[in-house]
Give the backbone structure.
Amino acid sequence: MATRVISVDQSTQSTKGFLFDEKGQVIGRASRPHRQIYPRPGFVEHDPEEIYANTVEVIRELVKNSGDDGSEYSIAITNQRETVVVWDKNSGKPVCNAVVWQCMRGEAICNELKAAGCGELFRSRSGLLIDPYFSGSGVKWILDNVDGARRAAERGELLMGTVETWLIWKLTGGKSHVTDYTNASRTMLFNVHALDWDDELRRVLTVPESMLAEPLPCDAFFGETTVEGLFSKPVPIEGVIGDSHGALTGQMCFTEGSGKATYGTGSSVMVNIGETFSAAPPGLVTSIGYSALGRTFYAFEGNVHSTGMSITWLEKKLGLIGSASEIEALATSVTDNGGVYFVPAFSGLGAPWWLPTAKATFTGMTLGTGKAHICRAVLESIGYQIADLIGAMTSSAGIRLRELKVDGGPTKNGFLMEFQSDLLGVPVVRSEIEDASAFGAFLMNGFASGRLESFGQASALAHFEPEIVPAGSPSVQKAYEGWKEVIRDMINKK
């Protein structure tokens, strides 16, 4: 009997669902946005109950619209990674809103850890830098600041997890408290060598062991669910992977040295470095790339806090564009940026600079600056940040980039992709798959179920658009030098 795979992509802005047939073709789509909650400056939250409810509704819509052909169903999950939820295991209620990866509430905690000389401990064991971006400081903040949370945790009454852990626990009625290696590797609590939670990191962050989920490979069985009675019998949850890691696999980066850039709310650049852990170059981190078919691959990664979110900000907060699709025409209506640069440090600057206290700013504006220059500067800031990451990876690690595989909504912007290719001097290759992360989760589901038996078999499902080749424009490189100068000035004023 044929199996249809529901791949849930729970991202920062929304919960999306994709229904795949066994050949990896998308035969259904659904989506639900959720609120972005800003209780005070620098704090970013999501409502975990809203996210769960949206997930159920997305699955219901996919099944309702699919038509009953007698197929079996299976569920795969990919998700925003570092966002963390803490909940009461008896009531099933979160003790507070989820702390989102963009949230800066853990900054003081991270500064204390750095001052105590803990940087090398975390880097050597977790592969990560100490930064509020990652889940560990958010968990500690919750335990230290939510009334009664610390006492409840020490009594063994609280659980924690990144978003996929929360969703699986809810979908299974509390029977499965699990995570996968990729999401675990983004918490600052996971030993990427031992593939298990690290007792010393846990003690430093004062997180009780009883709160932690069981870590599993990406192609494991994670539980089963009826999705609150939607299915007459339980269906398996098989294949779970963090969204950037899902894009790495969905882009078929199965060989050492292959890499991709995901353009979402923020962006992740990842390069597969093989099955041996290596400390990342300065400003970057080492994560579990993926773990499947009995093998675990590592990846260098750099994360940009704001890429697609900058476009959303132009639309929702400034009202300069009516929709994201309008920005390309505005950006190309002027011949250059007019000397205007935008540094989108809404939540500080991420890799490779890691300036958590930096603030978003425009520079170079004059009375001649118009809306088009601002829009162009915002698009260019996305390309510059990706180029900064690629440069750090290639120059420090000796990686030669032959092409850049890209995915995510902003990759539909032709100007941005051409600009990116010119900045890097290599072709940019877009996947024909709308959501590479969801496709990566589908592949992990295939490995788990036995439908796919090798990475080569998975790669045969790949489809890519014609590559975008660099034009070799000197003006682009000149503009990039201007960006670097703006960043240097920001660093010097730190």
About this structure: The chain is about 35% helix and 25% strand. The domain at 3-243 is CATH 3.30.420.40 (Nucleotidyltransferase; domain 5). The longest strand covers residues 295-304.
